[in-house]
Amino acid sequence: MYEKGTEQQPQVQVVVKAEGEQPSASTPPSPPLTATQRLKELEEQLRQQQARLAEVERQEATELKAAIDHSRRKYLLQQLERSLTDDRCAQIIKHMAEMILQEHKITSSQCTNWDDHFVRLERRVDELSAKQTKILKSIQGLTAQLAAAKLTTPQLPLLQPKSSPHSSPPSSPSPSHAGSAHSFRSSTPSQKASVKATYAAVTAADRGPKIPAPNKFRGDDPKTDVGDWAAGTRAYLRGFVCAEQTKVAIILGLLEGIALKWATSTSSSLQQSMEDWAFGLGVERLLQALEDRFADKERARKAADRIARLGQQRYSGILQALFAEFEQLTSTPGLVMAHDDLLTNFCRAAPEKFVVALYSVGHKDWRSFGRAALEMEAKLHVQAPSSDRRKGAFPRGSRGERQPSLTRGLPQDQIPIPSLMHLQVDRICC
Asked: Low complexity: which segments have biased composition (predicted)?
């Protein structure tokens, strides 16, 4: 019994040591797999290898068949080409061979063209994606700059009336911002940081009250007139001292809905990106294109009717009012009217004395004719003395249409235009 106890004691010590200490690196190996498990693993590996072998065999058979077909097609094409020059072949066989060769060339050319077209489309999609990412980054950068410079606020921060001596120590303005020192003296530190953010902020602050940023333009809102929106956008962009492309990017950022779809489709139809298309137009032409596309057709029609009605009789007001009304009507978005028609209607509505005097000058549009008439009216009002009124000169501020005594009472088509031209020039020179 003593021997049995001494044999069991090392076993107890080994068990305690194994429980108290960390397992050593030399862990006992896992029990060997049984024959059944080993057989299953070998069968699974064999099945996977057989599947891979079958797949490789299928690929090899497909490639071999394609190679055989290609070589066979090449051989047949060579035989067809030989049959064209072989005297043993009938003429109809030669014609059939020639037709088959032509069809083969056409099919090969079409396949090649489609492959090239697909490659170009894929390359174009990649370029458009890159440019779209670039546009988004530029718009985000502009938005961050506008937010930092506070250019989108309706007005400038209110200036403090007077700063107390102990409120803030005086700071000398930097040389680059010497032109806006008067705004730095009475602004808070946060305002100084916003003004120093960009050069555009400094210039806009020096120019006075800021114009609020225009709203987004959709193109289908009946409450938003495209002409008013374009005018507001022009006035808003005048406050920026930046490159033309930056202003164009701001306009693109203000488009949404139908207007944005129109810009995208127009640039795509020209095979250009929206950014390149807009940069090529510039600010004025881009806004004009928006006005032409989204103009109110009914308003343009009413403006054309009003111009036609003005040309039916002499204008009852002064010449300056007629010029201003024509200026307003011709600036209507979407108005399509020939320059000759505008000039004719303006001449019919203008006072007859100016039409007769400026008949042979050769004005090509109504605006140049109207400005010349305004200049002539101003010269006559300034230079005509009181004694000239007895001679038939135009009185100052007169709205009536006075004619020389030689032509008074004659129909309009019988008035001698050269003599009146000489008469008007003599009066101006007096």
From this structure: 157-166, 174-183
Is residue 195 classed exposed, middle or buried when 0-12, 13-18 and 19+ CB atoms within 10 A define those classes? Answer: buried
Q: Which residue has the higher pLDDT, 327 or 39?
A: 39
User: Could you tell me the two tokens for 88?
Assistant: 């043993």
The 10s digit of each residue's pLDDT in 344-363 is 888 888 887 777 766 666 67
Q: Distances from the Cα of 318 to the Cαs of 55, 199, 325, 391, 399, in angstroms?
A: 95, 46, 11, 23, 6
Say what the pLDDT of residue 139 is.
92
Closest by CA position to 349, among listed 328, 369, 322: 322
The CA-based dihedral angle spanning residues 211, 213, 214, 217, taken in that order and rounded to the nearest 10 degrees: 160
Q: Tokens in use for 412?
A: 């309009």
Averaged pLDDT for residues 407-416: 43
- Residue 131 has which token pair? 């440019």
Name the one residue in this structure whose structure tokens are 């194994």.
Answer: 18
User: First and final CA of the chain: distance in angstroms?
Assistant: 157
Tokens of 66: 């394609």
C-alpha span between 198 and 81 (Å, rounded): 75
The 10 Å Cβ neighbour count of residue 319 is 18
Listed by start position, the domains of the chain span: 226-294, 298-429
User: 247 CB contacts (<8 Å, ≥6 apart)?
Assistant: 237, 240, 283
Residues 152/254, Cβ–Cβ less than 8 Å: no
Query: Could you report the per-residue pLDDT of 380-392, keeping only the tens digit for each?
Result: 765 544 444 444 4
In angstroms, the CA 48 to CA 55 distance is: 11
Place of tokens 């590996």: 45
- Angle CA(173)–CA(175)–CA(177) in degrees, nearest 5? 65
Q: What's the full length of the chain, in residues?
A: 430
Q: For position 382, what pLDDT does the model report?
A: 58
Percent of the chain with pLDDT over 70: 63
* Residues 6+ positions from 132 with CB-CB distance below 8 Å: 273
SS3 category, 405? coil
- Is the separation of the CB atoms in 138 and 245 below 8 Å? no
Which of left, alpha, beta for 282 (phi over 0: left; psi -120 to 50: alpha)?
left
Name the residue among 141, 143, 138, 117 with its Cα closest to residue 274: 138
Q: What is the per-residue pLDDT for 297?
A: 65
